[in-house]
Amino acid sequence: MAGQYAILYKYLFKKVINKVNDVSKISLIRINSLRPIYVSILCFLTFLEAEPRELIPHSKTEFTYINKKGNSVEFDLTGKDFILVSVREEESDGRFYAVDRDGTVWLSGGISSGEEKGFTPSGKWKVLWKKRFYTSKEYPEEDGSNNMDFSLFFTHWGHALHKGNINSTSHGCIHVKHEDIQVLYKWANVGMPVLMTRHRYMQFARPDLLRIYTNVKQYTRKGK
């Protein structure tokens, strides 16, 4: 019963926080001052709900990770390349974001994720290995064709970002459109952080994406 109430409270609390993030009149200082309270409540609710993990974005590069026991750790990825996925659920963006080491969100696109909530795990992961051509061993195609091309594996259980239909849910992987995954695959390196969240990230990425996608001049990433 506690888990059911935790899910309800967590849903309502996230709704309020997402509304706060969308209101531009509230200062960043005011939002940051609420962060400890926000994290503490989510830690408690994560513990009650027994949800495996939680990852909360506070800015483009600042995050809180809550583990299975409800313990939280704050970390900052400033100066690092990383991929963030806000899974395709009601309170999320349903998009991936490629963030460069200079703090610029330089690429984003639609995705699809696991059919059920637990299929795609939240948390802080990393690219374990890359595979240009790949066929799922658990869910192979009847004709034997590749169904996981451009795979960026980020868990030992077989979760990966890969080419797929973003209009169909997955068994836990992240489906990315062909034109996007080609670019992402070429850019990503083994060891690169991969963040999975069930919170919105667009409020942090929007200024960069508007600037890049409306600028005729191609954006050049530093060090590339």
Short description:
This protein is of the alpha+beta class and 224 residues long. It has helices at 2-22, 28-33, 35-49, 178-187, 202-213, and strands at 54-57, 62-66, 72-76, 82-86, 95-99, 105-112, 123-126, 129-131, 151-153, 160-163, 174-176, 193-197. Helix content is 29%, strand content 24%.
Q: What is the typical, i.e. mean, pLDDT?
A: 80
- How many separate domains make up the residues? 1
Quick one: biggest sheet? 9 strands, mixed
* CATH topology value: L,D-transpeptidase catalytic domain-like
Radius of gyration: 18 Å
How many individual β-strands?
12
- Classify the secondary structure makeup into a structural class: alpha+beta
Helix proportion: 25-40%
Describe this structure in words.
Residues 1-9 and 44-50 have low confidence and may be disordered. This protein has a single domain, classed as L,D-transpeptidase catalytic domain-like. The chain has 224 residues and is α+β, with helices and mostly antiparallel strands. The protein is globular, with a radius of gyration of 18 Å. It is built from five helices and twelve strands. The longest helix has 21 residues, at 2-22. 29% of the residues lie in helices and 24% in strands. The N and C termini lie far apart (52 Å). It has a nine-stranded mixed sheet, sandwiched between helices.
